[in-house]
Recover the amino acids of this structure.
């Protein structure tokens, strides 16, 4: 069994454990490479079918190709897609691009707050209609007590403090110091009523592992990750006002793998192009304690 085989087996086990233990389960889909690998693993774990909805929080500032890719994949793979947003903040132009918030405040509003209220079912949501293939207002909005997330421990500092099964309180806030140990593949899945749980099947994967797996499985990935002729590509995807590409001529998955193996990005953080990380002295931990993905 190869290292990728072992990673895959652990992730599939975590996904099946989560499905068994949590009745109201949803998977967060950012449209990036990690959450798309997670989606692929879910289809493997459940024999081609994803038995829970996928949720995307739309800030309305995503790179347009991301939304096109999301809708096409949802239709092609027959996904149960839910889309949430912070409509009031967007209507009032309470955002960073409109000049009324800092980047971190904008992330908290358009991502953390939108995610919290979309998960709870308090705010209006859209859901993909399998017949028409269009996003329609959701009439019956159930709350979700468990969310599967494509976070990796090596991506940035705060994620390295997560567990496979990580508890949040009823406000989706994260107490970093109050997490159960996970020893010898024994996972705590019995939490107090009202606890919201984040599940992290990719926690021990690295950026290189992700791309090696994409190559092995031939997973369809959004083209923004590849150089399209100007000597740059995206290494991490987010909102366009706060996300910059890196200098790279990699046009294929094997070329990205070679860059990572050669050490080209050895001293450059994967999220170095994400400006909100630089704005907050605590990195992403301040945002993530409040519910950020």
């Amino acid at each position: 069994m190869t290292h990728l085989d072992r990673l895959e087996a652990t992730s599939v086990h975590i996904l099946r454990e989560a499905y068994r233990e949590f009745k109201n389960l949803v998977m967060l889909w950012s449209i990036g490479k990690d959450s798309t690998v997670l989606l692929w693993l879910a289809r493997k774990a459940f024999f081609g079918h994803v038995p829970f909805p996928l949720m995307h929080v739309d800030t309305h500032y995503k790179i347009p190709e991301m939304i096109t890719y999301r809708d096409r994949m949802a239709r092609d793979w027959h996904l149960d897609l839910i889309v949430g947003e912070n409509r009031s903040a967007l209507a009032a132009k309470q955002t960073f691009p409109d000049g009324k918030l800092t980047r971190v405040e904008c992330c908290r509003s358009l991502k953390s707050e939108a995610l919290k209220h979309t998960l709870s079912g308090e705010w209006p949501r859209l859901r993909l209609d399998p017949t028409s293939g269009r996003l329609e207002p959701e009439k019956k909005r159930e709350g979700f007590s468990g969310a599967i997330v494509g976070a990796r421990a090596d991506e940035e500092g705060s994620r390295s403090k997560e567990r496979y099964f990580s508890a949040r309180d009823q406000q989706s806030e994260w107490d970093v110091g109050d997490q159960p140990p996970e020893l010898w593949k024994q996972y705590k899945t019995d939490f107090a009523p009202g606890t919201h749980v984040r599940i992290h099947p990719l926690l021990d994967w690295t950026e290189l592992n992700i791309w090696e797996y994409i190559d092995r499985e031939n997973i369809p990935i959004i083209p923004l990750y590849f150089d399209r002729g100007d000597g740059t590509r995206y290494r991490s995807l987010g909102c366009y006002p706060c996300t910059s590409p890196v200098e790279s001529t990699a046009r294929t998955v094997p070329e990205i793998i070679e860059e990572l193996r050669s050490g080209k990005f050895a001293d450059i953080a994967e999220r170095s192009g994400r400006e909100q990380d630089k704005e907050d002295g605590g990195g992403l931990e301040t945002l993530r304690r409040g519910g950020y993905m």
About this structure: The first strand starts at residue 25 and ends at 28. Residues 76 and 133 are 10 Å apart (CA to CA). The chain has a mean pLDDT of 87.
